Amino acid sequence: MSAPVKNRTAHAGSPQIEICDVRIPPIGLAGTLRIPENAAALVAFAHGSGSSRFSPRNMEVAEGLNRQGFGTLLFDLLTSEEESDRANVFDIALLAERLIDAVIWLERESPASRFRLGLFGSSTGAAAALVAAARLGDRISAVVSRGGRPDLAGNFLEQVQTPTLLIVGGTDFGVIELNEEALMRLKGPKALEIVPGASHLFPEPGALNAVIDHAARWFSRYLTASTDRL
């Protein structure tokens, strides 16, 4: 069992947020769990391309979701030793397995065990999120991909019944087409949102805010609909 190792509370803004530094079994991956008061659900993040739980873009999206009442888990999918081998960044099976480990911990041992779960993936992490959703079935209620490579999920795409939103930048040529092709292969409720003028990392003014808005609406629809707020 891995319990939170430190607790602190963020008072700025609304709602008040409990922040826990955690270690996720079985290998003790480091993570940050943020739970707003009156949270409705929780979203676990799967970063990609070697980013850590401190990815500024994912942190900004997570904080945006916190402000709208969603708990979030940002964690390192790879150990520091594993990160030194770039092949691990593209090992979708390994990344998906780590994400599944995190979901199991969230369900069984974490302070967020009562919440319905969603996944948010970026870059190669989007493929890991889709593989995890295919394997976990209705244990995952929604998936959102930001600038992702869902095509790397391979044959798992046809097994995904989970409601999935793909978000792509309007100038991210090549990745747009890969997302369009992946969208056709998904079997559950699905949508593609293209953010005008945004490139792959969404650095343009307002681009990440658009991502947050799209993601929050999707998660609100599929994580909190027909359920009481917890």
Would you kindly provide a written description of the structure presented here, covering whatever features stand out?
This protein has 230 residues and is an alpha/beta fold. The protein has one domain (6-224): Rossmann fold, CATH 3.40.50.1820. The protein contains six helices and nine strands, in the order E-E-E-E-H-E-H-H-E-H-E-E-H-E-H. The chain has helices at 56-67, 80-83, 92-108, 124-136, 175-185, 207-224; strands at residues 6-10, 17-24, 29-36, 41-46, 70-75, 117-122, 142-146, 164-169, 190-195. A nine-stranded mixed beta sheet has the order 1-2-3-5-4-6-7-8-9, with helices on both faces. The chain is globular and about 40 Å long. 47% of the residues are buried.
Concise description?
This protein is of the alpha/beta class and 230 residues long. It is 33% helix and 24% strand.
Residue fraction in strands: 15-25%
Shape: globular
- In whole angstroms, the N-to-C terminal distance is 24 Å
CATH superfamily annotation: Alpha/Beta hydrolase fold, catalytic domain
Round the Cα radius of gyration to an integer and report it.
16 Å
Give the proportion of residues in helices. Answer: 25-40%
Q: How many E strands?
A: 9
SSE order, one letter for each helix or strand: EEEEHEHHEHEEHEH
Total DSSP helices: 6
Mean pLDDT: 91
